[in-house]
Amino acid sequence: MLFSIGCSEENKVADESDEKIAYISSNPESEYENTFNDLSLGTLFDFNFELLRADESWVKIWVEGYNQGEAVKPSPLAELSYGLYPEQEVEGQLGAGILHSDDSDSQILIYSKGARTGPSSIDKDIFIDSTMTSWGYAIGEETIGLKPGEEKLLAVYRQGEDELKTTYDYQDSDDLEKMINEDTMVLLLKIKVEEKEEL
């Protein structure tokens, strides 16, 4: 009886481990992020990323925008989609940056190991002239696993005309919806990894 229970628990742990297709953690104060800050280019979110079955996986990273509670078009504002590496496992950095300009549209760039998008222009009118700006990682520096098809919020950039509330739980869908409706402008960086054998 004890032996049977032990095996059952071991199988359960193994099954939970096998469900993870990738692992990710925030990488604040990385060389990429520090360079972005030193050059006053804007805001960068950088992550450590490990893809376990890279030859059978497809990764999608994108940025959604909301203004006055409504989705901004085009949706997503920027997107990077890639996968099916020749290697079985791939490890490196991924992230997204918001490049601000005083006299033209802002831009979003998304990068990952072996893949990136050119900067995508977004209407500068999306942003408001406000000192009430906040940004932060939605996940911590501890490594978390991603299941196939699971959508994960990685980072948030927010602006408001008044004081910004700081107690939202970014991984709670109700809190996230409340934040989108209460803030003037919100950008969300998200990721999803899916199993895929061919294009």
Compile the SSE list and pairings.
Layout lengths: L1 H17 L3 E5 L4 H8 L3 E10 L5 E11 L2 E2 L6 E6 L6 E10 L6 E7 L2 E2 L3 E3 L10 E5 L6 E3 L4 E9 L13 H10 L2 E11 L4
Antiparallel strand pairs: 1-2, 1-11, 2-6, 3-4, 3-5, 3-13, 6-7, 7-8, 7-9, 10-12, 12-13
What does this protein structure show overall?
This protein is an alpha+beta fold and 199 residues long. The protein is 18% helix and 42% strand. The strands form two sheets. Strands 1, 2, 6, 7, 8, 9 and 11 form a seven-stranded antiparallel beta sheet that branches. Strands 3, 4, 5, 10, 12 and 13 form a six-stranded antiparallel beta sheet that branches. A hairpin with a 2-residue loop joins strand 3 and strand 4. The longest helix has 17 residues. The radius of gyration is 19 Å and the shape is globular. The protein starts with a helix and ends with a strand. The relative contact order is 0.21.
Quick structural overview:
The chain is an alpha+beta fold and 199 residues long.
Question: What attributes does this structure have?
Answer:
single chain; 199 residues; alpha+beta; seven-stranded antiparallel β-sheet; six-stranded antiparallel β-sheet; disordered N terminus
Secondary structure class reads: alpha+beta
Tell me the radius of gyration.
19 Å
- What is the number of strand segments? 13
Mean pLDDT: 88
Fraction of helical residues: 10-25%
Largest beta-sheet details: 7 strands, antiparallel
In percent terms, what proportion of residues is strand? 35-45%
Order of helical and strand elements? HEHEEEEEEEEEEEHE
General form: globular
Which parts are unreliable, with pLDDT below 50 for 5 consecutive residues or more? 1-17
Number of helices: 3
Distance between the termini: 48 Å
